[in-house]
Amino acid sequence: MTTTGESRPHRIAVLALDGLLPFELGIPHRIFGRPRDARGRHLYEVVTCSVRPPGPVETDADFAVHVAHGPETLATADTVIVPASYERGPLYDEGRLTDDLAAALARIRPGTRLASICTGVYVLAAAGRLDGRPATTHWADAERFQRMFPKIRVDPDVLFIDDGDVLTSAGVAAGIDLCLHMVRRDFGTAVANDVARRTVVPPHRDGGQAQYIHRPVPDPQLATTTAARAWALGRLDEPIQLRDLAEREAMSVRTFTRRFREEVGVSPGQWLTQQRVERARHLLETTDLSMDQVARESGFGTAQSMRQHLQAALGVTPTAYRRTFRAGGAERHGGAGTPR
Fold it and tell me: For the packed helices 291-298 and 318-325, what is the interaxial angle rounded to 10 degrees?
């Protein structure tokens, strides 16, 4: 993220289209409106705009919202987020931008980060911003979306996809996951976790987690894997075998693995790696432990192993991550520009 002399908040423009879902419109304001730097200054500025001059925008509910900013706001944004809309028309029926929407999108500066929540992805797709790239949307709409935009590599199973300067998510709660992911990417785990705590949502669901989990709320008549997960979280620095987890729930390895994936959406091994990456991130941000010590405390064993896992998960080395997100890093990196 670039900085200016007196760093200004990263500006996020939320594009409100007719037929929008009020819940999803509110997600960016709720998540990005919370983070502050060490001096109490907002790290983001969130502004809602329309493709028309200021005025009412219809929702899918029995009320409209008054949007105070027009399309010129898009030219000032560092990130543009497009929430879902259920207004049928050329965009959703033909995959074609309307004239006013095309004119509005043309105002976006090169290099601006783009993101969509649920069917907001149609806007990015119709604008040609996703050709040849991976993207996701709500699982119920993914097949139709793929038929309409065959050049896009649609993954209907994941919560969100971060493709650098363009990010897409599934519906509703996955929009929260995506926005928290962007906060984590911009300002680190500690800031994102604080936002999640204040919002009373899980601090981290990996983007590759399944959209549709067979048993999101465990049947009270059946054994669950909750105790095994809690047990593992308390000893991430120790070797943990699959059979150890299964034994905590008095299940066979096969039954435990199946039940775990049904409840969590990923395999036990994938989940453990995710938790260890999160532990390593926290330690890199908040302590002066050496790389070897961080690796041992987070369960990776060696600095080389930790480096490989963080490089795969985050695209940066532990050293680079610490340099960017150490305590106070949010203030140092709070300026304008597209976060990296």
Answer: 100
Rounded to two decimals, the pTM is: 0.75
Contact call for residues 170 and 160 (beta carbons, < 8 A): yes
CA atoms within 13 A on the CB side of 259: 21
3-state secondary structure 263-329: HHCCCHHHHHHHHHHHHHHHHHHHCCCCHHHHHHHHCCCCHHHHHHHHHHHHCCCHHHHHHHHCCCH
Do 56 and 17 touch, CB atoms closer than 8 A? no
The residue that leads in pLDDT, 335 or 123, is: 123
Closest C-alpha to 25, from 37, 43, 13: 13
* Average pLDDT score over the chain: 87
Q: Residues 282, 196: contact at Cβ < 8 Å?
A: no
- Reference 260, options 162, 58, 272, 104; nearest CA is 272
* Contact in structure between 151 and 126 (CB atoms under 8 Å): no
Question: DSSP letter string over 115-130?
Answer: EEEGGGHHHHHHTTTT
What is the SS3 assignment for 155?
coil
pLDDT digits (tens, 9 = 90+) for 67-78: 999 999 999 999
Instruction: Give CA–CA dist 16/55, Å, rounded.
Output: 11
User: Residues with Cβ < 8 Å from 245, sequence gap 6 or more?
Assistant: 225, 228, 231, 232, 256, 260, 268
Report how far apart the first and last C-alpha atoms of the chain are (Å, whole number): 6
CA atoms of 155 and 201, how far apart (whole Å): 24
- The Cα 245–Cα 268 span in angstroms is 9
Structure tokens at 213: 């989990």
Number of H helices, E strands in the chain: 14, 10
Q: Which residue has the tokens 């969100």?
A: 160
Write down the pLDDT at residue 200: 75
- The DSSP 8-state label assigned to residue 243 in this structure reads H
